[in-house]
Design goal:
It is a single chain. This protein has 19 helices and 16 strands. The chain has helices spanning 11-23, 37-44, 62-74, 89-97, 110-139, 146-158, 175-185, 206-211, 228-231, 247-259, 285-291, 296-302, 319-334, 343-350, 357-371, 380-395, 407-421, 426-433, 437-446, and strands at 3-7, 27-31, 48-52, 79-84, 102-105, 165-168, 193-197, 212-213, 225-226, 236-240, 261-263, 270-272, 276-281, 305-308, 340-341, 377-378. A five-stranded parallel beta sheet has the order 2-1-3-4-5, sandwiched between helices. Strands 7-10-13-6-14 form a five-stranded parallel beta sheet. Helix 4 (89-97) links the parallel strand 4 (79-84) and strand 5 (102-105). Helix 17 (407-421) packs across helix 18 (426-433) and helix 18 packs across helix 19. Mean pLDDT is 85; it is low at 127-133.
Length: 450
């Protein structure tokens, strides 16, 4: 399913286009705030963008052209179609020179709009997908240590098959990146890759989240909802933190994997599913099976092939490569000059312990670069200061006495503190808590956090 992002500061336009495009079979999201549009593009990586040219009734189109230029500089493969209420031939020419594929005037004709999107994707999109799927798979895979090369060798062997794969390893070792790399190397690479954090789904919501529901299935079911297995049909479903799944939900998942079918909640109709399953966990499923915390039959169903991710301490020679990668991307994302990292700093970073693995290293590097924005050179002392800040933050965490606070209250408190610390940036907060954005949003909704 092709992903389309609408960038327009008119919320009515956003909602109208979302409805039209979803009805036409596209996965569509919108951003009504231009100042967060680039962050959304970076995070969601749409196939095509419908970009408004006239933010805040800027009849010149300068804001839209500036946004187009920044998008094409950072993401040259993303297709862009411009929309404006102040159409001029001169503006259209400027947009085309900057890389736009088409130019439409408001109010648009729905048939013309859909035809323009279809043409752009059929001419340019499929070519891009075929040419870059493996390139995308390699984009975030950084490392040349023997332990990591063994992982990549196994990834190459299993990607072309439909075998169920279990990825194990400590938190922060890059299990999700490897799962996506397998998908992008597979024969399903042009089909959906759907990620599900099972640790963030309560038992009561499991069926609705995974299999969907029909309107009226339960009290709050005010409309039909598409489940994750439906979204992943003919593609790959990534079941993250499967070790956290309750036994009751494990039974329901096993039935789907065995029978390759399920029933939407509130409906008696059986739906066939064709998905490849990749699971991941930081826990020992073998120990959970022994203790009765995980079903043995489900374990063997998902564990046809197992890939164990090495911890960062097992691949220290990769740390300089990872540091360079993180520095490059934080500078691109925040549009700041890339600093020079001294060899002493690389050596020092390579000899530190990282309980949070790659995720912790990334946090330290990004924090150092951002807080030292005006520095052209970063040395040991710059990284030491931020490593110390992170350690002090951990040292200050104190748990309440038993009975003083429920687990939900503790989680709610931690999320509120993290949001405040990161100035309510969803991306930074979710990363610091080790959650996906969708998991963080679900928890915020659960606790009534605005």
């Amino acid at each position: 399913m092709q992903k389309i992002l609408v960038i327009d500061d008119d919320r009515t336009v956003c909602k109208s286009l979302e409805l039209l495009l979803k009805k036409s079979g596209y996965d569509c999201q919108s951003v009504p705030l231009p100042n967060v549009a680039l962050e959304k593009v970076q995070e969601w990586k749409p196939d095509l963008i419908l970009l408004d040219m006239n933010f805040s009734i800027d009849t010149s189109g300068k804001q839209g052209l500036a946004m187009l230029k920044r998008i094409k500089e950072s993401h040259p493969d993303i297709l862009v179609i411009l929309i404006t209420g102040w159409a001029t031939l001169q503006l259209a020419v400027k947009g085309m020179k900057l890389g736009a594929k088409d130019f439409l005037a408001k109010p648009w004709d729905n048939k013309h709009l859909l035809a323009s999107i279809d043409t752009a994707i059929s001419i340019y999109g499929n070519r891009k997908l075929e040419a870059t799927s493996e390139k995308e798979a390699d984009e975030h895979i950084i490392g040349q240590s023997p332990a990591f090369l063994e992982v990549l060798k196994l990834v190459d062997s299993v990607s072309r098959t439909n075998a169920s794969i279990l990825i194990t390893g400590e938190s922060g070792t890059g299990k999700e990146i490897i799962a996506e790399a397998i998908h992008l190397r597979s024969k399903r690479n042009q089909r959906p890759f759907v990620k599900v954090n099972l640790g963030g789904i309560s038992t009561s919501l499991f069926e609705s989240e995974m299999f969907g529901h029909v309107k009226g299935a339960f009290t709050d079911a005010q409309a039909d909802r598409e489940g994750r297995f439906t979204k992943a049909h003919t593609g790959t479903i990534f079941l993250d933190e499967i070790g956290d799944l309750a036994l009751e939900s494990q039974v329901k998942l096993l039935r789907v994997l065995q029978e390759k079918s399920y029933e939407v909640l509130g409906s008696s109709e059986t739906v066939k599913t064709d998905v490849r399953v990749i699971s991941a966990t930081h826990r020992s499923l073998e120990e959970l099976v022994s203790s009765g915390g995980f079903r043995e039959d489900l374990f063997y169903r998902i564990n046809l092939i197992q890939i164990k991710m090495p911890s960062l301490s097992e691949r220290r020679e990769d740390i300089p490569l990872l540091v360079k990668y993180f520095v490059k991307h934080v500078c691109i994302n925040y549009e700041i000059e890339k600093p020079y990292i001294t060899q002493d700093a690389f050596d020092w970073l390579s000899n530190q312990s990282y309980a949070g693995n790659i995720r912790q290293l990334r946090n330290i590097v990004e924090r150092t670069v951002l807080l030292s924005e005006n520095k052209k050179k970063l040395d040991i002392k710059d990284f030491q200061a931020n490593m110390l800040i992170a350690k002090r933050s951990l040292d200050k965490i104190t748990l309440p006495n038993i009975g003083e606070m429920t687990l939900d209250e503790l989680e709610s408190s931690m999320i509120r503190k993290a949001l405040a610390f990161h100035n309510h940036s969803i991306s930074q907060t979710s990363r610091s808590l080790g959650l996906t954005r969708s998991s963080l949003y679900r928890r915020m909704e659960k606790y009534g956090i605005k």
